[in-house]
Design goal:
Strand content of chain A: over 45%
Helix content of chain B: under 10%
Number of helices of chain B: 0
Number of helices of chain A: 1
Structural class of chain B: mainly beta
Distance between the termini of chain B: 37 Å
Shape of chain A: globular
Number of strands of chain B: 11
Oligomer: heterodimer
Helix content of chain A: under 10%
Radius of gyration of chain B: 13 Å
Distance between the termini of chain A: 37 Å
Largest interface: A-B, 29 and 28 residues
Structural class of chain A: mainly beta
Order of helices and strands of chain B: EEEEEEEEEEE
Radius of gyration of chain A: 13 Å
Chain lengths: ~120, ~110
């Protein structure tokens, strides 16, 4: 069964450094997402991406964050200058179509644990 | 943000019995609901979903019930198996709440006792 893959599984970075988290969505999916889960808290939506542009973003997704689909398979999340509070599990997800418009489920990768020192 | 709530942090059930996991929501604009299962060190795995035009959806051992007037949904697992032991999240989305944004509950840890 096709799956979303994320690399690396664990990233340790010094505060203030840039970090790029990588994802390969399911190949025939059109919508891509990033979520994060801070330890002990809910899974929270960050951003959705469709047709090479951001379709929605949350308040968390400020100017420090950016997303890109640099080629036909990868989808990346960049944090420009990391802060201690960025430490979390970051999940990438993809769906064939929009959840809200077409009732399509989002399928998640296993996540990247980001630790900011 | 308490739009989706799972009030039971944990549930223990004997193997072969029914597991019932509950979820409440506050935003009446939600119209699509999903259940995910999560094992440690893995991402959420999609289990089953239901749109607001239905009140029940079944897939094998898993059935989701939706009560729109009570803003409540539940997941029934029958019969429960030890491999079902995991954390279960409910999630919701809606055309007018941000169509691509899933709102998650805090999860319920299910333990199925052999």
């Amino acid at each position: 069964e096709p799956e979303v893959t994320q690399t690396p599984s664990h990233q340790v970075t010094q505060m203030g450094q840039e970090v790029i988290l990588r994802c390969v969505p399911i190949s025939n999916h059109l919508y891509f997402y990033w979520y994060r889960q801070i330890l002990g808290q809910k899974v929270e939506f960050l951003v959705s991406f469709y047709n090479n542009e951001i379709s929605e973003k949350s308040e968390i997704f400020d100017d420090q964050f950016s997303v890109e689909r640099p080629d036909g398979s990868n989808f990346t999340l960049k944090i420009r200058s990391t802060k201690l509070e960025d430490s979390a599990m970051y999940f990438c997800a993809s769906s064939r179509d929009s959840a809200g418009y077409s009732n399509q489920p989002q399928h998640f990768g296993d996540g990247t644990r980001l630790s900011i020192l | 943000d308490q739009q989706v709530k799972q009030n039971s942090p944990s549930l223990s059930v004997q193997e072969g019995r029914i597991s019932i996991l509950n979820c409440d929501y506050t935003n009446s604009m939600f119209d699509y609901f999903l259940w995910y299962k999560k094992y440690p060190a893995e991402g959420p795995t999609f289990l089953i979903s239901i749109s607001s035009i239905k009140d029940k959806n079944e897939d094998g051992r898993f059935t989701v019930f939706l009560n729109k007037s009570a803003k409540h949904l539940s997941l029934h697992i029958v019969p429960s198996q030890p491999g079902d032991s995991a954390v279960y999240f409910c999630a919701a989305s809606g055309y007018y709440t941000g169509a691509n944004n899933l709102f998650f509950g805090t999860g319920t840890r299910l333990t199925v006792i052999p």
